[in-house]
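One thing: mind reviewing this one?
=====
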Amino acid sequence: MNQANWEQFEKQHYLSLETFRKNGQGVATPVWFAVGDGAFYVTTMDNSGKVKRIRREGRVRIAPCDMRGELSGEWVEARARLVSDPNEYRQGKKLLNRKYGLKKSMFDLAALFMRTSRVMIAIERVDKK
């Protein structure tokens, strides 16, 4: 993605993360994100559909959006991966906590009661040549 497309995410609270089913059909989900070290970090439940699709294929598209998923910018191609490094996981969590504060803490508390494991997703740009 070019720099202009990357900058459209500045000052945004949500991005639409589109992952792809085996048949190629896209599934878009609005998610909170934080930026650090050239990647977007997103946390979600480990048994969610988007995690299953990312495990199978890391190709995704992202676009800025509102909390309902209504796009406010262009789709751009990206790569997603599940974060396995504990230090990177902590860094992503720290960035998300700083950006969303009390709202994020409330979701984390709810996840504890639901006894769901969380995973961190790193989304990185794909530079076309």
In short: The domain at 3-125 is CATH 2.30.110.10 (Pnp Oxidase; Chain A). Strands lie at 14-20, 26-32, 34-36, 39-45, 59-65, 76-82, 118-125. The chain has one domain: 3-125. The radius of gyration is 14 Å.
